[in-house]
Amino acid sequence: MRTKALLPTERIETKILLIRGQKVMLDRDLAKLYGVETKNLNRQVKRNPERFPLEFMFQLTVEEKTELVTNWHRFNSLKHSTVLPFVFKEYGALMLASVLNSPRAIEASVYVVCAFVHLKEILLTNKEFAQKLKELELKIDGHDEQITAIFEAINQLLSPPPVSKRKIGFEVKEKRVKYIAKKWTQCKF
Question: Of 41, 44, 118, 162, which residue has the fewest beta carbons closer than 10 angstroms?
Fold first, then answer.
């Protein structure tokens, strides 16, 4: 029997972060969602290392933790913590529910998985939209060149032919020869 929803999927989605190019949730956010303390959640992870390979979770570096604290106000409590938090990918979050084995954890895991799936769908939709936009842009670029060529051809057809000014008369294309003029003498008969 299902109780009323713990958290709407939209609120869980706000807890999903993009770290190292992967969608993850912090251990403290999952602990709150599953109704356990963060240290108990991490204790169960350490007791079951075979269930949490690197494909399911990883620990943040000091630089990543500092970046989280700097960029997100809700992580200020991590600022003075000496412990580096763990982050869980989709399958790691699901595996936590089986390790914690409480009714609340099992119910919450359904919402977590739904949130991850919803984000994947949004990402795929955005990729498809970006691809279609790029294809349309390429089509338009090709058409622009073709339209420009058509307008140039129409303008050439519409413009009157150039008027040539022809010279009237005869033009000699031979070299000029110098003629020497002789004096005329009168003939004596």
Answer: 162
